[in-house]
Amino acid sequence: MLDLQSLFALKGVVAALRFYDDGSLAESAGDLDQVDGQLAAELCYANGRIMHHNGDALATLSGIEGWPPRGWMMMSDEFSICAVAEVACFVWNREASFNDVFRGLAEIANQ
Hints:
By secondary structure, the chain is α+β, with helices and mostly antiparallel strands. The protein contains three helices and five strands; from the N terminus they run H-E-E-H-E-E-E-H.
């Protein structure tokens, strides 16, 4: 069973966090101080809400049900944010296995 500390231990993961449904920080592991952790939690919460809105719109436009997102990823050239439910982590792209990252996120989110 994984926790935030074991997710943080995955290669390429800089920090991991869990946030509440109001966007406040629940817990974190890794290189985030409290202020950065709270801002990261707010960003991940807001992006997750946008993804849910887009999933609803896609279901309406396509006529196909089942679009609520379980997770999302925001990727830049070198660094990414990956999230499933209320759990997210920040990773260096070249170092991380995104399969391992999302497997870990899903396991933690489903606990």
